[in-house]
Amino acid sequence: MKPILVTDDIYKLTMNVHDMLFEEMWEIPNGVTLNSFLVKGEKLALIDGVCGWDGAPERLYDLLDQLGLKIGDVDCIVINHMEPDHSGWIEEIRTLKPDVQIYCTKMAARLLESFFGYTTNVNVIKNGQTLDLGGGKELQFIQQPNVHWPDTMFTYETSTKTLFTCDMFGSYGTCEDRDFDDQFSKEDREFFWQEQIRYYSNVLVTFNKNAIMAIKKAQSLEPNVIAPGHGPIYRQSPAAIIENYDKIANFLVDAPLDEVALLWGSMYGLTEKAVKHIKKVLNKKGVPFHEIHMPHEPIGKVMSMCMRCKAIIIAAPTYENNLFPGVVSALEELGKKKIGKKKVLYTGSFGWSGGGYQEVQRIIEHHKLDWELAEGIPFAGSPNEEDLQKISTAIDALLA
Length: 400
Known about the structure:
This protein is of the alpha/beta class. Helix content is 36%, strand content 26%. It is built from twelve helices and 22 strands. The protein has helices spanning 58-66, 84-87, 90-96, 106-116, 186-204, 208-221, 238-250, 270-285, 299-308, 325-336, 356-367, 385-399, and strands at residues 4-7, 10-17, 21-22, 26-27, 32-40, 44-47, 76-78, 101-104, 122-124, 130-134, 137-143, 153-157, 162-166, 225-228, 257-264, 289-293, 309-315, 318-319, 322-323, 342-350, 371-373, 377-380. A seven-stranded mixed β-sheet has the order 1-2-5-6-7-8-9. Strands 15, 16, 17, 20, 21 and 22 form a six-stranded parallel β-sheet that branches. A hairpin with a 2-residue loop joins strand 18 (318-319) and strand 19. The longest helix has 19 residues, at 186-204.
């Protein structure tokens, strides 16, 4: 892959990664792009590095070589975020050029020492501090903690108004031949919109309040280019990715989509009878819904589908006086990620005693979720016509 010119003397060094779990837990069927950036003034700055998932650091040597550069030409490394998928080249560069200067936040410096043992030539930045690279290039450092680690910051190149945001404004999905938003087709825009939702729900959602602050900061800067650590670069309409992220963040505040997540599991088909009825009701009403059959679906899908929807219907049987474990694991993860502001309905089969609804209540209370839980509709064995009618009535109320 070739280095890609972003704007005047700023280059994207990128790698596309497939066939892995992101953070060793999130499925990425469409892969992910890892971005690093070179800013060329009189000094050469490398902003972030990438993990050794795709032949790095050998790939770094090749990319620099194509620009007529070598690792020894790098004068400074800017660390926006110390997570290894953004800091994987540091050790290699530091080995070959021990005097390279590193710029990072105070928390990132602590992590740098614990990860690599580095304490020398580490410059802890202050919020708003600038670094003059010469040749008209100046970097400004903007602390933006907890998007999504406490070490994170933005870097802003003032002459081109290019904002390097690391995880913020990122997405899943490899770029391939569409590195910039001005190369998008209509289908590409929809593709990356869906990938942004999945990425946010997996990586950033726990820190939604911090992400909202980061959105406001980016808006105030009015950048010409937004260059995240994952996904495409936004230079035609950087306001569009800010707007997308604002919409996603507000899924958890007051503006989820008018859609339903149907989160269900069934051991022997009894609860599934209710699920078939629920799908029939939703289809008749023309309500978009996302079916999540646990434990067969990956947890990343649970996060993205439930985050975006206004309502969640939980259909799962009682299991040993509690809720079916496949659905419990999904609800617990939703709780840990603080997926809030939802209207919720529970139904499910039981044998000699119930308990499923009570566990849903317990999970909501334990995680302090902002969920409006309707009265449950547990049913003995197989649902009869009266049970199905209760479910229909409850769905009417849920969607009202």
